[in-house]
């Protein structure tokens, strides 16, 4: 299964980032929640993005932070060498997509939830 880092992870069960964590877990994908909020998501500690945690073997990064908050994390996220980055609705960012693509990272403007439900993940 695909080890997925959720950027913008939250303990708020009403947020899409939380719903994505639940669904990824249901589909047996390993989740790595990362964000600015403290807490746990499905028994996994939310790693502090400000600490730029090094996590090996990331297949997919799924973004739940808006484009205004992404630039300071470009180098960190690209440095994790994911195979792809999913820009969920509201996170689209042509500048970041271009930088990632130039490093050989696939970028998708898509919805993680829809991708999972339609077997496109």
TrEMBL record:
InterPro entries: CoA-bd, NAD(P)-bd_dom_sf. Coiled coil: none annotated. It comes from the Bacteria. Residues 2-116 form the CoA-binding domain. This is CoA-binding protein. The lineage of its organism: Bacteria, Pseudomonadati, Bacteroidota, Cytophagia, Cytophagales.
């Amino acid at each position: 299964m695909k080890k997925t880092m959720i950027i913008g992870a939250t303990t708020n069960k009403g947020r899409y980032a939380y719903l994505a964590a639940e669904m990824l877990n249901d589909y047996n994908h390993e989740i790595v929640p990362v964000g600015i909020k403290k807490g746990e998501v499905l028994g996994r500690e939310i790693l502090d993005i400000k600490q730029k945690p090094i996590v090996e073997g990331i297949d997919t990064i799924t973004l739940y932070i808006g484009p205004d908050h992404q630039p300071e994390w470009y180098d960190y996220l690209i440095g994790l060498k994911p195979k792809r980055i999913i820009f969920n609705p509201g996170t689209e960012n042509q500048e970041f997509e271009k930088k990632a693509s130039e490093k050989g990272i696939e970028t998708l403007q898509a919805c993680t939830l829809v991708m999972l439900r339609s077997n496109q993940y």
